[in-house]
Amino acid sequence: MIVDRLNRPLGSLRVSVTDRCNLRCRYCMPEQEYVWLPKQSILTFEEISRVVRVFTALGVEKVRLTGGEPLLRHDLPTLTAMLARIPGISDLAMTTNGLLLAKHAESLRSAGLARVTVSLDTLRPERMRDLARTDRHADVLDGIAAARRAGFAQLKLNTVVMRGVNDDELVDLVDFGRAQGAEVRFIEYMDVGGATGWSAEQVVSHREMLDVLTRHYGTITPIRADNAPAERFRLPDGTTFGIIASTTAPFCRSCDRSRLTADGSWLLCLYAEQGIDLRAPLRNGASDADLAELIAATWQGRTDRGAEERLGLAERTPLFKVEGLRADPHREMHTRGG
Ligand code: SF4
Question: Considering the chain, what percentage of its residues have pLDDT values greater than 90?
Answer without folding.
Answer: 88
